[in-house]
Specification:
Layout: H1 12-17, H2 31-54, H3 56-69, H4 75-86
Helix pairs in contact: 2-3
């Protein structure tokens, strides 16, 4: 196995040495860590884009609702209600 070289900026090694991160330093370069890091970055970008499209007020309300429903026992029923309440009216109902 080849050797890898890692360089730290001034003070970085000291901060790592005094933190909980030093014990798991090698994990930062594993494929699993890189995959998780990419997933987190992608999710953050998606949320930022959605917040920009919906506006921060609506996005914050939706985020609060998602958090409330996350482990709610009637989650599926609540989501079905939201879907039914947000569908456009049928053309037959509107007389078209």
């Amino acid at each position: 196995m080849g050797r890898a070289r890692v360089e730290f900026d001034a003070g970085e090694w000291q901060r790592l040495a005094t933190s909980h991160l030093l014990g798991s330093l090698l994990e930062f370069w594993t494929p699993a860590w890189r995959w998780r890091s990419q997933q987190e970055k992608a999710r953050k970008g998606e949320r930022e884009r959605l917040s920009a499209r919906l506006g921060p007020e609506l996005f914050d309300k939706l985020q609060a609702l998602a958090t409330a429903l996350n482990n709610h026992p009637a989650r599926d029923e609540a989501l079905a209600f939201l879907l039914s309440e947000t569908r456009p009216p049928d053309r037959l109902e509107s007389g078209m």
